[in-house]
Amino acid sequence: MTTTSFFFPLRAPHARRPVACAALLALMPAAWAQAQEPAARLPEVTVSASGLQLGVSEMTQPASLIEGDALVRRREATLGGSLDGEPGIAASHFGAGASRPVIRGMDGPRVKVLSDGAEVHDASSVSPDHAVVAEPLLATQVEVLRGPSALVYGAGAVGGVVNVLDGKVPTALPEKGYEGSAELRAGSAAREKAGAFAITGGAGAIAVHAEAAGRSSNDYGVGQGWEGGARVPGSFNDTSTASVGLSWVGSRGYLGLAVTRQNARYGLPGHSHGFEGCHTHGDHLHCGGHGHDDHDPDGEGHDHDHDHDHPDVPVVDLRSERVDLRGELRDPFAGVSALRLRAGTTDYVHDEVEGGNVATTFRNKAHDLRVELQHQPIAGWRGLLGVQTAERKFSAVGEEAYVQPTHTRSTGLFLLEDYRIGDWRIEAALRHDRQSAQALDSGTRRSHNGTSASLGAVWRPAPGYALGASLTRASRAPSAEELYARGLHMATATYERGDADLRAEVSRNVDLTLRKTSGATTFDVSVYRNRIRHYIYGRTLDEVDGLQLLQYSQADATFTGIEGRVRHAVTRHVGVTLLADRVHARLDGGGRLPRIPPARVGLRLDANWQSWEGEVEWLQVARQSRVAQFESATPGFGLLSLSLAYNGRTSAGMPWQVYLKGRNLTDRLAYAHTSFIKDAAPLAGRNLTLGVRVEF
Predict the structure, then answer these.
(1) Which ranges carry the TonB-dependent receptor-like beta-barrel domain (predicted)?
(2) What would the pLDDT profile of 12-47 be if each residue is shown by its tens digit?
(3) What is the CATH number of the domain that holds 399?
(4) pTM of the model as a whole
């Protein structure tokens, strides 16, 4: 069921911080007074992205599932911000309008974002200043699969897969004829106001769904002591999303269609016009063509006459329209248990507006098709096979058209099989991909083929324990931008050059995961090592006044890391959680990779009593001093967060909740090492969010 949020203006004076903390601590004595009882094991929720409807504890690779109240507490304006802080997951952070998940130190095309199993087509994998069009406020569940072993969704997802589930296409008829939710919320750091609603109705075999979400926020405030001021110029974000869906629902499945439109307008902090006219001489930058020269003979500079509310800040004006077709038919014919369909078409465009004029227009027209056939057990093996195709036409026209128009076609065939014997579950996957990327201006075409495979097992040595292991060989074809980029990209302060001769990456990954899912103490800890041959990265060749010359290059690289959490239920009503992660990434020939997340460790205390529930958490982020050439170190910081909620029911029996959550309550000045613009756009300072939601 979809939720949404409602807000009213709210300040964050220091006096409210002890009051909020005291409210949570007040729950402790009453909760502690309850008799200590063993923690019960909750029913496991199915991970849709597993392909075989598995629970988290059955997965061979590490997986996270966020839903319900936990998702309400975690949701932010962007998908990256909503997942930041989960073990192994950081965010790219580009002001308030754009942020993608960074999984195990990897982002961009190595992290695939899905909408209920179908790829989200936008421009976010091209550049970190481009927004992900998935709306967190309308998500009902978010699944994260770490590592490259989720081959059924593409071998290129070497970092992992993020699957955002929603209710836009109804899959069942509401029991009472209708169901829905509504939410309103308000935040203090950016004077944010946001709200959303969702409703599903049905009669006979027809179900109809409608949902919408909107938010409006000003420039956000940062922690104390930033030399740039109290707020980040150009960090505002106004977004609206709406969907309408219609489904036919029968006893053996459903078939439905949904239309979604999103409009967004957000600023690009840190943009500098001082790089206009910069160009390359060989492997060096030359920026002598701007200022008092032939391009500006009067020496008066450029007149950028921006919107008076955000002077000198470019604005992204985004429009996305997507049509989704989803269906499932159970037991369609002998030997087949389910047939699933996912298809969609996307028309995405965003203008980068400067001085009231459109400087650059990015377009992405794409369509995709995915068909899965799940077969009945054969000699004890159950599984699925499928085909996935996609076509993408991408173009950038204007001042910052650093990528020529491209046409990319891809096709993948995949097979996933599962076998169980005693306390063991064995999983094997095989996938073959072919990609063709053509640069339309030059006529250059590059094709890549790759075969990927994984083998994994889960062993349950004792009730409540699971040991998972997986070995994966995955092939990723270079993206069109890595092949054909050439030009100035002022949003990230880079001049990017692609290489049409790049080869496909080949990664070899090993994952070990130990889980305990029942009893007073539960945990989930993973270690991994990923060796990638021909790893593609932006190598900095030169720098002038903060502008970097990035050449997409290849070298062998190794990623090694650990991530996990341990929770101990002190009583039925009080729990303590320790969480941590660390990734170490470097080139095999020597040298560091840029923007690798620093190590983190966190301590969380949760409590519930009668209708109250709450959490308080301290997350310590280490200093990142293992940096690439031309990259600066980032100081460490600590963040104090709190959430408090009260649950009730109306006289008609409808559940409702009022919640308060606070982030960075100590108002610490913090920088995201994963961000291209970390110094121009620090993380938000103290932020209090007050919300109310109701389900009906």
Answers:
(1) 291-665
(2) 334 344 433 444 334 434 334 333 444 444 456 788
(3) 2.40.170.20
(4) 0.88
